[in-house]
Specification:
Helix content is 19%, strand content 28%. The chain has 253 residues and is of the alpha/beta class. The structure holds zinc ion (3 copies). One zinc ion (ZN) binds next to helix 1. One zinc ion binds next to helix 3.
């Protein structure tokens, strides 16, 4: 199983419009600092799953038939804005999503080829030979993480969240993911209330899952800037995702 990050930014992206912080300034000249909105591609055997659709060029990247399904974590715009273009296309594409009665704008009213399938927490489903278990996350809108299993590899995709409910922590403790892709929007010292993990939250989770590889995503420009000045802050086993990076999940950490 492979996961490729297509977008690793918090809402607003990097560079943030109008921001002249060190990272946003760098990102305007060096695309390796750029972060697009939240989106990732899972490839496992014959199955190709899009995790969220924050990037705006989904129709160009993925012609008809190239995706098995889309998994939506929640209906904030930075996770579903790429779906709006797909609505004018033809054919059918399954979109698994949380039970959110409102959704985003008129996506439910005019779905076009998008076949929304509302899934329930801890009710596993399959796409081909990939098993997926949705887990609840604490966020400002109904939000699911997805625990994805193929062959011997187990990957948890947890965006967006400010904390894990005890039921989700218990599931993960039992399930023992090899890789955890985790929302980490803010640097240390960010005032509460927050709807996202900050770096100390993320590193505390690392202590609960010492055998898992933890990859931070949904990165805000202020965390990037903080890490630019504190390059040794991430312990072994914790990495920062980059747009275009591919993780290979083999079932071994
Ligand atoms: Zn988000
Ligand atoms: Zn900035
Ligand atoms: Zn969100």
């Amino acid at each position: 199983m492979r996961l490729t990050f297509l977008g690793t930014a918090a809402a607003g992206g990097v560079p943030l419009w109008g921001c002249d912080c060190a990272v946003c300034t760098l990102a305007r000249f060096d695309s390796s600092f750029m972060r697009r909105p939240n989106c990732a591609l899972i490839e496992a055997g014959e199955v190709r799953l899009l995790l969220d659709a924050g990037v705006m060029d989904v129709t160009e990247r993925f012609p008809p038939g190239s995706l098995s399904a889309i998994l939506v974590t929640h209906f904030h715009a930075d996770h579903v804005q790429g779906l709006f273009h797909l609505r004018w296309g033809k054919g059918e594409l399954d979109v698994y999503a949380p039970q959110d009665a409102i959704g985003c704008a008129d996506l439910y009213k005019s779905p076009g080829p998008l076949k929304f399938k509302h899934v329930s927490k801890f009710s596993a489903f399959a796409v081909g030979d990939v098993k997926i278990t949705p887990v609840p996350l604490v966020h400002s809108k109904e939000t699911l993480g997805y625990c994805i299993e193929h062959a011997d590899a187990r990957l948890a995709y947890l965006s967006d969240c400010s904390e894990l409910p005890p039921t989700t922590e218990a599931f993960l403790a039992e399930w023992q993911p090899h890789t955890i892709c985790l929302d980490c929007t803010f640097p240390p010292g960010t005032a509460e209330p927050r709807n996202h993990f900050d770096l100390p939250d993320a590193l505390a989770l690392e202590k609960s899952f010492p055998t898992s590889k933890i990859v931070l995503m949904h990165i805000g420009h202020r965390l990037d800037e903080w890490l630019l000045n504190s390059p040794a802050a991430l312990p072994e086993g914790v990495t920062l995702a980059r747009d275009g990076e591919t993780l290979v999940c083999t079932g071994v950490t």
